[in-house]
Known about the structure:
Distance between the termini: 6 Å
Order of helices and strands: HHHHHHHHHHHHH
Amino acid sequence: MNGVGQRRPGQSRTAERHDRPGRGGRLPFAAAAYILFVLTVGTNMPTPLYARYQAAFGFSPLVVTLVFAVYAGTLIPTAMFSGALTDSLGYRRMVGPAIALAAVAAVLFCCADSVAWLYAARALQGVSVGAASGALTAALVETEPSGDRARASMLASVMIVGGGGIGPVLAGFLGQHAPLPLRLTYLVELALLALAAVGATRLPRRTRPGVWLFHRPRIPAPVRRRFALASAVSVLGWAVVALFLAMVPSYATAILHHHDLLLAGTAAGMFLLFAAVTQYALARRGIAAPPTTGLLLLTAGLGMLAAAGGTRSLWLLLAAAACGGAGQGITFMAALARVNELAPQESRAEVLSAFYMITYLGVGVPVIGVGFLAAATDLLTAVVTFSAVTAPACVLVAAKTRTTWADTV
Length: 409
């Protein structure tokens, strides 16, 4: 497969489908999609509000990146064991507690009166998403009514990037124009999570016999090289996402010399909103864009982002978000579809959790480096340096996918 939804010559649509014991109507499928969306919305809601927390609690810009990175720091180890645990316990028993942890995190944000509360809330968000993301993606594949893996992968990807884009915009709007700016956002999130808890009762109960024992995620030997390439594609896309979510609100404020939470939220969220729109448009038209195209668009977006700071151009910043967002949408959709193809039925959640674990290394590690560099120099230098390092990596991986992706089906 060269991208999401593309079939090999002579392969019928039916051949892409598969029989699964969990298939049971549209409601479980819709519930899994909604929960994945809501959890992603919630984890990105704090992004535009960090400026308010910074003013209220008096911490440095470096602390913003560390608070942001704590999320990945707890998500990654959680994902190490959650996949195998999901395959053993079933989706419902894994996702229900994850929703509860997300609700506790929202309460902590709502009651925060120091930076320690922010660290604790972000840590719980990381555990929540680390436990649920692989399970929910696997549940989408298992419960897709017609058995279409490509459609399930596309929807999972759209829910993740769409939720990531809507979260900052919604929080920015509420923080700027609604009362109780640091509380109302999380009250809205709690209402959304209450509906998610109801939806979790519709997920499959299926479990795998046997006693669960902790082990690192295991990727079947025959697919490891293909899995590694798909993971590299995803890591690069989400590394650029991390830069936009953590740094671009301040970057936009520096360019425009104007402090506005809605502006900050839109600046952060528009990257992922462009990604979601790109994914939806490609899927609707049946176009399977290869990851090579997405990686090159990411490279162009990074160049525009660096230039936007040097020229203080809002239009270049918007162009960077549009171009980079389209690239991220293509790369993540293609990578997730590839992993869903490779994952065996009996260990799908485990393989997907390993994929998310590696992906979120691309979220946590680079943004910490950018934060330290920004503290030592300035924000523009940090963004330009990140772009100068990441863009060549995108080109190298693009060259690799161009020569091997079509042959690794």
